[in-house]
Amino acid sequence: MSNPTPKREGDPSGQKAATWYQVVLSAIGDAVLTTDTDGLLTYMNPVAESLTGWSAAEALGKRLEDVFHIVNEETRKTIEQPVRKVIDTGLVRGLANHTLLIAKDGSELPIDDSAAPVWDETGNLIGVVMIFRDIRERRQSEHLIDAAREFAESIVTTVREPLIVLNADLHVRSANRSFYETFMIEPPDTVGRFIYDLGDGQWDIPALRNLLEEIIPQNSTFDDFEVEHEFETIGRKTMLLNARRFPPEGKWDLVLLAIADITERKRLEKEREELLQAAEVARDRAETDASKLADADRQKNQFLAMLAHELRNPLAAVRNAAEVASRSGSKEDMEWSRDVTARQVGNFAHLINDLLDVARITEGKIQLHKELIDAGPVIRHAMTAVTPIVDERGHELLASFTSTDLKLEADSTRLEQILVNLLTNAAKYTPSGGRIQLIVGIERKEAVFRVRDNGLGILPELLPRMFDLFAQGERSLDRSEGGLGIGLTLVRSLAELHGGTVTAMSDGPGMGSEFIVRLPAAEGMAETGPKVKPATSAARRCRVLVVDDNADTANGMARLLKLSGHDTRVAQNGGEALSVSREYRPEVMLLDIGLPGMDGYELASALRREEWSKDSVLIAVSGYGEQQARDRSKKAGFHHHLVKPVNFDTILALIGGS
After folding, report:
1. CB atoms < 10 A from the CB of 287, how many?
2. Which of 133, 140, 398, 529 has a CA-to-CA distance to 473 between 20 and 30 Å?
3. Is 113 or 536 the better-scoring residue by pLDDT?
4. How many CB atoms lie within 10 A of CB 512?
């Protein structure tokens, strides 16, 4: 480079130009230094001072080698100064790769630089300017990239399945050892060659061409594509191909093609299929009801899929409600989140209760608590229970009575369950804005309940098995109606336990349906049993100990009780509960059964041996609801046994009555 502003003695413009250049060089982000033709330093900007550790006052006039000490990063040998090369040749020079600058304090940093000659107006060399910069971040990035590349190449090399990497033009970039061994081909015959030319054209497979030339450009992947082909070197094989393009979006440069030889697996599958067919024939000959078994298996699989769906829906709603509650502080959002959570917990409880009822009925363990009742209140409760889904779908729900005396011997809870299931079923399978009727009366000494709708109707072939376990009509993938296909099974089983029947009627798709429950009617006045009114607050303030190994459950119950005016303590295992209770002397204890170590039964027995706890009320709050668990609770000293999830009003009522 030439100096465009020659300085003359006493020429103020030359001094100004020199000052201007120094200001500019001081302001740039790279390190800059200059030397004269003897290699003595004449200028350093602040960045150069920082990187070398030398101040300009110390360095000016010194040999460049004394200040700018550079070595090769790998060999540690001193590198010839690029400034010397410029002085000798008059050409622009740069440092070689892997150059380290040794600062004055001995610290090292990687740099790159360039040096250029400075000429005067007559073309004479008057000095050299060198610019260099700290490239530590770039070097770290390069090391990371190198490490990642080595890691990826190691994976490709060690993968057991044959793997081949193609460029965008479908020429082979690399392949792993398994590829070469499987297809008996050498790297020189593979790398750089067109994929279809490999092995004298044995990879020129029409199906593979279609995948690589048509599918890959449109989609970033294809998975488990099966190809059967006669290979020249290894014979007829069945291959499973998987491909990924990289990067998956935008302009792509590479295709990773994985090849799995599944020939043996296919042979075994074929043999297995033949054996299964033979076994099927033998079973069909021995069992005349093989079709029923297959149908039961299909229904079981459908049920499992539906169960997963029905569990995910309320879980998704609860999760969304929790997110809204955590992200918003508005009262409206908090109330909405609370309502959604409460509603979905109710759905969970209903689902679990239905499943348990089916299990009890299947095992013959369900027991009815029959009494002489008036069906009127039961009907009102059932209609109230289905009001949310009826209102949500804009249905019209009407009840009519053909008799005024509706007395029967029945379990009121189970009768309400029958009606709720039938009304819910009608609401689900009736398009929005439909009409649902509940018609009740006495016919020939039978209490008859008819649930009639103008909904989707029932296929004639489905009517005979409407009440079979897990039986449902055709459903779309969205599963908008929901349900597990056990509701009608429960209805039939509960009706039969009452000595009654249930039947279904429909004129076909789109013609609505009618379900008719017939139960034995009874004479006499209905008896009214004692009812527990929901409590909104405790009758008196009690000391309550909550014991549950699930911290969220325990703390949540304690918070609810505090909001209701009670004093609470929490423990998460039997030992802690004993220690806390001896000091706290709770009046009421809510104990989980499935505690780690000392379970709830053992804890209750231990508490009953404490003199101070003789008058304390023990309430089991457990996920175990079968009769055996209730009997054990009573034997251990519990006053009450509640099954999770528990209605909080029930707990308050029990505490209030303690």
Report:
1. 11
2. 398
3. 113
4. 22
Q: Are strands 235-246 and 254-261 parallel, antiparallel or unpaired?
A: antiparallel
Is 351 inside any structural domain?
no
Q: Answer whether the bond into residue 645 is a cis peptide, omega within 30°.
A: yes
HSE toward the beta carbon, residue 313, CA cutoff 13 A: 18
**Mean pLDDT over the full length of the chain:** 81
Q: Could you tell me the residue range of the domain that residue 382 belongs to?
A: 371-520
In a domain, 415, yes or no: yes
- Mapping DSSP onto H, E and C, the string for 65-121 reads HHHCEEEECCCCCECCCHHHHHHHHCCCEECCCCEEEECCCCCEEEEEEEEEEEECC
Q: How many contiguous H segments (helices) and E segments (strands) does the chain have?
A: 21, 24
Residues 113 and 186 in one domain: no
Number of domains, the chain: 4
Closest Cα partner for 501 from 513, 511, 491, 514? 491
Q: Which residues pair with 505 in a beta bridge?
A: 514
HEC assignment per residue over 105-140: CCCEEEEEEEEEEEECCCCCEEEEEEEEEECHHHHH
**Are the beta carbons of 103 and 52 closer than 8 angstroms?**
yes
3-class SS at 24?
helix
- The b/e string for 603-614 (b: 16+ C-beta within 10 A; e otherwise) is bbebbeeeeebe
Q: Which residue has the higher pLDDT, 141 or 437?
A: 437
Q: Which helix (H) or strand (E) holds 524?
A: none
* Sheet with strand 513-520: strands edge to edge: 396-401, 435-443, 446-453, 513-520, 501-505
Using one digit for the tens of pLDDT, what is the confidence trace for 202-213?
778 887 888 787
Q: Please tell me what DSSP assigns to residue 171.
A: B
Q: Tell me, yes or no, whether 210 and 255 share the same domain.
A: yes
- Got the DSSP string for 208-254? HHHIIIIIHHHSSEEEEEEEEEEETTTEEEEEEEEEEEESSSSS--E
C-alpha torsion angle, residues 291, 296, 299, 305 (rounded to 10) = -120
Indicate if 488 and 618 belong to the same structural domain.
Answer: no
Is the previous residue joined to 117 through a cis bond, with omega within 30 degrees of 0?
no
In terms of domains, do 246 and 381 share one?
no
Residue 314 pLDDT level (bands cut at 50, 70, 90):
low
Q: How does pLDDT run across 495-519, given as a tens digit for each residue? A: 998 999 999 999 989 999 999 999 9
CATH of the domain at 222: 3.30.450.20
Contact 195/207 with Cβ under 8 angstroms?
Answer: no
What's the pLDDT tens digit per position in 568-606? 999 999 999 999 999 999 999 999 988 888 999 999 999
Token look-up 């457990």 returns 622
**pLDDT (tens digit, 9 = 90+) per residue, 455-482?**
999 888 888 877 776 555 544 333 344 4
Q: Quote the pLDDT of residue 530.
A: 36
What share of the chain in percent tops pLDDT 90?
29
Domain boundary among 214, 245, 266: 266
CB 484 within 8 A of CB 306: yes
